[in-house]
Design a protein that fits this description.
- With 72 residues, the chain is mostly helical.
- It has one domain.
- 81% of the residues lie in helices and 0% in strands.
- The chain has 3 helices and no strands.
- The longest helix has 39 residues, at 33-71.
Amino acid sequence: MYMWCGSGSVWRMGPEWIVVLVVVVLLFGSSQLPKLARSLGQAQKEFKTGMDEGAKTDLLKTDSTDDTETKA
């Protein structure tokens, strides 16, 4: 088990990443990898957009709650 404690620890995890990459290529095939990467990128973008929208909604709810409490 490796701990994430600095820039040198990334290089110690190299062989595991190579094995993971080989398994992914074997499972999905080299022709499917660009499609897989594209869909993962789109999912990440949608997730970030949703998180930003949720944060804005929470901020608006908090602001409106603060306004009603100060008026009362």
